Structures are given as C-alpha cells and as structure tokens.
Amino acid sequence: MDITALSLPPLTGTGEVVTFYSYKGGTGRTMALSNIAVLLARQQNATTPVLMIDWDLEAPGLHHYFDHHDDKPGVLELFEACREQLARRRKGEAALDGDELAREVLAAVGWEQYVSRVDQGSQLYLMRAGRFDDSYGERLAAMHWDELFNSCPALFRCFADNLARHFRYVLVDSRTGRTDSAGICTTLLPRKLVVVFTPNRQSLEGVQALVTRATAYRRSHEDEQRPLMVYPLPSRIEMSDSVQRAQWRRGDQQQRIQGYQPIFEQLLSSCYGMPQMSLDSYFDEVQLQQTRTFAYGEQLAVRIDQGGDRFSLTRTFEALLDWLAGGYFPWQSSREIHLLASIGDARRALEEGGVRALSQPLARDLNLLGELYRREGRLRQALTCFEESMTLRQRGLSEDHPDTLASKSNLASVLRLQGQLDEAQFLEECIVEARARLLGPEHLDTLAARANLAATLAQQGRPAEALTIMDAVLEAYLRLLGPEHLLTLACKADRADILFRRGDSEPARAAQEQVLAARKRLLGAEHADTLRSKTALACTLLRMQELDAASSLFDAVYQAQLRRLGPDHAETRKARAQLADVRAQLGGPVVGRIGEPVLVPELHQDVAMADYGDALSRQPRPRSGRHPSDLWTRATEELMALDGHLSVGRPPSR
Hints:
With 654 residues, the chain is mainly alpha-helical. Helix content is 55%, strand content 6%.
C-alpha cells in the first residue's frame, strides 16, 4: 500500500460528493457503497478517480472490504489537525471571512497524506476513519463536531469542494442515527444522498426524518442553498417472499403497512415541491436482495458475480448507477433515462463530426421520448422533442416521408392538447393532404389523420365541420373494418365527444353506451379504454342530471383504478375527484383516499378531462322540466347495466 502522500492533478470539471446513510445498522450500507465505488472506478477504462471516506467513526469497517490495514491517519486525524489550525488562527489578529478561513485551514492541513490507494487496477482510494491506536477512542470522544462547525461553518462544505476538484466521485460512509457527524455527512457535504433502509417502520421513520431535515436545511440556510438529490435504496429484500415484498413496497391497509414507495413518493413530492410523482420504474429496478453468499464477511459482489444477470446484486448496483451516476431523478423512468442517454450519445457523435446518418436515429429517439412525455402529461417537454424530431426528419428524409409525417402528427396532437389549435390545424391539414395523395383517401393512416383534424376543429368551436369529417371517417371504418373493430369504436367515441361538446347529450349518450358495451365485451370491464368509455358516459349523465347513474359509473372507474394502479396514481386521483364531485351534488358521503374524507373545496382539483372539457363544472340542466331526482328511476343493479344491456336498443328517453 502507498505510505507517501498522494499527488493527484485536479479534474477538468467538478466531481460529486455522495453520502450513503442509514438510520440503523445492519442495512448493508457500507457494502453498497463499496460495490458502487468499484463500479464507478471501472468507468472510462478504469481512469475515473474515486475516493471513499469512512465517516462511521464509532464503528469503522469500510477498510475491511479492501483488505486495507495500514496505520495511516484518516478522518479523525484530519479534523484534529483542522481544529488545531483554527485554534492558532483565533489567536491571530487578522480576521478572515468564513470561506477564506476554511480554505486556508484546509490548505495548511492537506488531504493527500490521509488518503491511500486500495486498488492497483483502477483509481480507487480510501480515507480511513482514523489511526486505530490505543488512543483512538479517547481522541474520538474529545472531538466535538458541533464546536468545530461553530468555529468555522464553511469548513465542511469547503472540504467537500476541495476533494471534488480531484476526485470524480467522493463516496462518504455516514454514521447511523441522529448525531452531529451524521448531520455533517448528510446535510453539509453531499450533492447526492443515498438513504439505505430495510423495510421496517424504525428504519423508514428514521430516514424520512433525516431527508426532511437535510432538504429543509438546504432550503433555509443562505450559505447552503445547493441542490441535494435523494436516492432511496431498499436493502435486505427477501426475494422469495413475493407477498411481503409487495406489502412493504406498495402498502397494505389491513396490515397497517404504509409501504415504502408511497412514503418516498409523498416525501420527495413535499421536499421538491412537486404535486405528484411516481417511483414505479425506479423501485422496479432498485431493490438490494438478501443473498446467502454475501450475508457473511466483507465480500464485493461486483468482483464475484461479474456477469450481472437479472438475479445478481451486480445488476441492482448497475441499475442504481443508471440514476445516480447519470444525474437523473428517481422519479424519471428507466425508459426515459435510457432514451436520454442514447440521445446524448448521438448529439455528441454529431458534434464530433459523425456521419449525417446518425441524425435519423436521433430523430427516432426524440420522437419516442416525446411520446413518453406526452403519456406522462409533460407537454412542454414533448413539444420540444417532437419539434426537433420533425426538423431532423425534414432535413434528412423529405417533407412527405412517413417518419416526417409521424413526427408532424405527434407535434399536432401536443399542440391541440396545449390549446394551440390554429397551429395544430395547419399541420393536420398538411398531413391529410400528403397521406391522401401518397396512400389514397381511404388508407387507414389517411383516415386517422382526418379524424385528428376533426378533433381539432371541434375544439375550435366548429362542430358542424368536425362532424362532417368524422361521419365520413366512421362510414369508411364501418365499410372497411366492421362495426366492432377497435378503430371503429375509437372513431365512434370521438364522434360522441363532438356531439357532447355541441350539447347534443342524447345522441352522445346513445353512442357512448354502444361503445362501452362493445369495449367491455372485447377488452374487458377494467381495460383502460373501457374505463375511459365509462368516464365519458358518466360525464354525459352528469350533465343530464342523472346523478345516481353517473355516481355508479364514477365509482366503478375509481374502484377499478384502485385495483389496477393503486391509490396514488394520477388516474386514480382523477377518478376519486370525479366521484367526490357527483356525490357532493347528491348530498351523500364524499370518498377520500382509501376511505378518507375529501374536503369540498378540493373537489375540482385535477378534475379537468382532456376529452370533455369543462363538463363537470357546468351548471346542471334538468330535462323536460323534471326534477333531477326523477330523471333516473331504474333499480340500483340496473345502473351497471350501462355495461351490459347496451348491445340492445335503449328504451326511449323518459
């Protein structure tokens, strides 16, 4: 091992400090840090300098993973020297500001003599907890971290910045619990914080409190307003018990288990000021499983199971690095980060003089990323992706190439969703003209383009023109595909939407009932398209003041979304709000999150529907002069016949 001071040149950029923290011991925190460090040091032909710091001074053990047992000084001795330097400067006359004092102290102490190389095949380094001589315990007890911080608050931040100038990654193994040293490691030092926990209440409550304190401190202290990205890492997961694994991840109300995924979704939403987020993709990939092989001793999984198949710990560590090293947030899906990485690679290749053929894979990935953002409701990002994809395809292919037209169509759909209807109409008319000319007037792609144009015209307040186009498209679908083809049913649903917008509730209702019956029969009662049909019909019934029927349909959609997506998904919350709205109008109990009450002022939050505009907020209009309570007199079990009897003729309106 090296016993002389290191001499590492500064990086061309700035590195990152990442702290690994667990509230209790036994989570595998140090093991996780060690494996991540080895993987990071292997990057770029093993030329990435990585430093590990063992700050768990009361129970040091990081050195055991690397068979490192020299008597070199470490963290304790370094800050003892800083304390002495500060004491000397307090006696001096010249007063320095905080950052200048910290830099002067750290320069006098130097970090190089406290660091050792622990891998001759890569640039992997270790700063031990300290020199474990007979005086170690006494010296540790005499180190008062709060006093050291108060004497120079900038010391720890400048220490981290100094190391980040020489190491691409600085990984800090933090003390557990609520201690001064743990606060330094988690609040003052890092840019990224990995919180390692086992699925039990003590561990979860501890890391929740720590994350809340750390992010609040960063927001509230003027000198510390730096970003802090948090990555939860569930550990010791027993893969053979699928029931408990699902309970502790998703939650189980009957067992009074909240679930760590909803806990972190709520926690991170609050910390980052986001209305909602999903950690589905992240936790699908990032769970450290319990294994017999690594339950004993200090073994590095990434050096043993280097194959990295889907059952290995190596695969899990690599998955975590997709988010951690890539700088992505845990609420970004793995699909998104892989597309972003591919797009980044293509951009760099083009900037370095790559062949123009690379522009088309870039356009393809931008189009795929735009489609992902559109599904997630991130319309601004989707618009940017589709615009660039279309431009690249116009340049590299042609104005009428099928890929160019696909990008145009996607762009028009986002413009329509954002209310930029004139721009959407222009693009859709171009698409219709090109597809009719190249493919023929009754090609399925041409018919789809005409249906999109009709939807835009309807939103522009031109329902007569929209219906004329949609009727022609529907007639073609009926003739070419038959009455129960999925494209025909989608066209019927869109036509009913136009009728709904025009205020023709009766014909809209009749069409929606037919589509719902067919979709339930073909796709199932809880298919996403079937649920959309139920919601659309419920909105029409709501406008017609048939409140009991609307309530039953909204309730069916809500219960289905609970089973399919869970209580915190955006679609479930939307269905819950719609049900709460109609129940409030009925004067009955208002449903909340898994039975919790919903406050009336929040009923319309997030209730807007892309297909039906402001239908839920319009004033109810009783029909034929009747009282709303007279409008629906069928038995309760008949309400859901909206799912079953619709294939036969509906009796005349009463």
